[in-house]
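Same chain as my last thread, 189 residues:
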Amino acid sequence: MSKIVVVFFLIMLSLTSCKKRDEQKVEEYPSSTERLNTIKSDKPISQLNAKSKELVAPWSEYHKFADLISQYQEIPMSNALLNSKELEELARQLKDSIRIERLDIPAIKMRLNVLHSETMRLSDMATIPTITEEAVSAENNNVIEAFSALNLKINNMSSVEKLNEEISSFIDEVIEEQDSVPAENEGPP
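reply #2:
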């Protein structure tokens, strides 16, 4: 009889310890409903103005990246992590493919490096099984802000070029007016 009681207690002890381990495993990994949560960016992506769109028109890598990043404005967390490797690869290609001479400057390269770094961080998060929605959302915002910073810099360059053209034409007009007005000491012959 005492052997039966001891065996019974051992079985009960093993069953309760297994149950506790299962509960701990459930707590360590996010539930499937958490992974389906949608993350939304805090700010919209800054868009290119018309002049800037003309400038980047031949840059196919830019357009591929822009198409994919637009989906990250509002995306299920699982999709954000699933597509993060592709996003990181497109950011690397974007960084390595500056074909437009006017954009091949340190200010643009720096923004592309930051964008690539942020996409790499998001891609690394996909390998962490216990990553929180807040962490993914924060990094998603960082990626969108880095892309917006790139767009704003390209817009700024276009605006500066337009302003320089206007100033140059104004100066040319002033010089023409000065050349066409006779000097005061010059009189009729």
